[in-house]
Design brief:
Blueprint lengths: L2 E5 L5 H11 L5 H4 L4 H5 L3 H10 L6 E8 L4 E10 L15 E9 L8 H15 L5 E7 L3 H10 L2 E8 L7 E8 L2
């Protein structure tokens, strides 16, 4: 099957919403995402419209999607720019300007076909084009071994940074980084 990997367009907010809701129903969602299906499904259309518009252009965030030949959206990731000296979502000061990859998802029927690599290649290419970006990073749950292996295969390495989960501090999220070539 052929796939197109590209940035979202502002008018595609309904597809952005549908793919996110699908991702949040995946069996791995509780360890892959910090949001629940129940919370996301309650969001108004204006939230999804703003999300699509905000990640379709500009230099602060970009969402990339994998679209199957039949037009079905089957995967996505978002790259969010984090400027050196600013605080990240945990309140820690960022030492370098980089992008944070979030919302990584590939539909189970399309896994193992190189879509993660394609999505990350597109997100990294965009990231490296943003002035000052030196690194990409992401967080992955300690029990999400499949994702860890996929990210390592792409070139991400564990940085040593860990974040305990608020709901269960005995569980950790590992930070993985990829430096600009």
């Amino acid at each position: 099957m052929q796939y197109e990997i590209r940035p979202v367009r502002a008018e595609e907010w309904q597809q952005v919403k549908e793919l996110r809701l699908l991702a949040l129903q995946d069996p791995a969602a509780p360890i892959a995402f910090l949001e629940t299906y129940e919370a996301a499904v309650q969001r108004p259309d204006s939230f999804w419209q703003e999300r699509a518009a905000g990640s379709s252009h500009g230099t602060q965030a970009r969402q990339f999607v994998a679209v199957a030949a039949d037009g079905t959206w089957v995967g996505a990731t978002v790259a969010i720019v984090e400027r050196a000296g600013s605080k990240d979502f945990l309140g820690a000061e960022l030492p370098v300007t980089g992008t944070h990859f979030v919302g990584v998802y590939v539909h189970p029927d399309h896994r193992g076909r190189g879509l993660i690599q394609g999505l990350f290649a597109a997100a990294a290419e965009w990231s490296w084009s943003v002035e000052g970006v030196e690194r990409a990073r992401l967080f992955v749950h300690q029990d999400n071994h499949r994702a860890q292996a996929a990210y390592k295969k792409i070139g991400f390495e564990r940085s040593g940074g860990v974040v305990p989960l608020e709901a269960d501090p005995s569980k950790l999220e590992y930070e993985m980084v990829l430096d600009k070539p």
